[in-house]
Amino acid sequence: MLLKRLIEAPSGSIAKTVLLPGDPLRTKYFAENFLDSPVCYNKSRGLLGYTGFYHGVRVSIQTSGMGTTSMSECVTQLVEEHGCRNFIRVGSCASNDRAVHVGDLILSIANANESNCIGEPLSHYDFVPTGSFDLIRYAYEAAHQHGIPVHIGVTGCCDLLYREKDRPPLIGSEMEGTGLLVTTSKYPNVKAFVMMTCGAHAIYEDEVIPAVRRSQSVYDDMVKVALEVAFRLEREE
Cβ distance 51 to 60 under 8 Å? Predict the structure, then answer.
């Protein structure tokens, strides 16, 4: 029996640089509102994928699904079958850092792993995957250029969505980052980093993003910065 693949796309339909939201509705919103001439290349398993243009630069936005396993499988297929080389996770996270507020943009310099996805080749190391420095730098500079407040620090990746409040002091915690960074670390000349918007806070519980906005404009600043990184990558190469 053949298993249905996460990404079923024609050869050449996916760009070299890929943004990776977890939510398919968010993917659709980003593509339709920020890309010129977006074309949907994937609907397999509901993981919508689009390719379009940003200031003339070809960019794809591919839904990763929820959790490290889905992220890892998507990225493996994108690298090995479609030749993708640059990955930017654009997601949401929770935070318990007092300097961060709901709606703030976070850039992850390293991803402390609470997940179980490191795998046998790296299991004997205390491996903390890090983002590609030049991508993080491009994102930081783009955020400042557009007047977008940004926080930079160590984030966490976990397998459980609902956890106790007494957690290590991580600037943000989500469920896919380690899957991306561990997977891309296996390939030479592949770059990746994790950026996210704070969607919930353990301390400031009254700061809540309404459900109607969770797939929409509250994440606009994040995707603008991500697309500026994609544009600069193309210009620098």
Answer: yes
Helices and strands counted in the chain (H then E): 5, 9
The region of weakest confidence among 92-96, 156-160, 219-223, 227-231 is 156-160
Q: Angle at CA 127, nearest 5°, toward 121 and 131?
A: 110
Cross-strand partners of 167: none
Distance CA 155, CA 138 (A): 19
Structural domains in the chain plus CATH codes = 17-236 (3.40.50.1580)
What tokens appear for 191 in the block? 């770059």
Find how far residue 33's CA is from the centre of its chain: 18
Contact (Cβ atoms closer than 8 angstroms) between residue 50 and residue 19: no
Average pLDDT over residues 33-40: 98
- For residue 3 the two structure tokens come to 């298993």
Between CA 23 and CA 37 the distance in angstroms is: 21
Instruction: Please choose, from the candidates 52, 59, 49, 87, the residue with its C-alpha nearest in 3D space to the C-alpha of residue 176.
Output: 87
Let me know: does 75 contact 184? Beta carbons within 8 Å: yes
Each residue of 121-161: pLDDT tens digit?
Answer: 555 556 778 999 999 999 999 999 999 989 999 998 887 66
Q: Tell me the one-letter amino acid at 223.
A: V
The pTM score is 0.91
**Within its chain, how far is the Cα of 157 from the centroid?**
12
